[in-house]
Specification:
73 residues; mainly alpha
Amino acid sequence: MPKDIIGQITGSINIFYGIGRTIVTVGGGWAVHWAGGNYRVLFFFAIGAGLMGIWTVLGVKDERFEQRKAAKH
């Protein structure tokens, strides 16, 4: 990942991780009830949101970085 946009990248990951934790907090009781009392199912919601964040980060394009990279070559 380009070091110039590391703030944008970590911000995106943190947003999705936060979304996963919020979903677990808000719907945690329902999810545990749905899973038959297995609280471990909550981790899958947070992990899934984290993976969505990473997938989103891989698609981040910074035009300024691309221009600087092209100018060096």
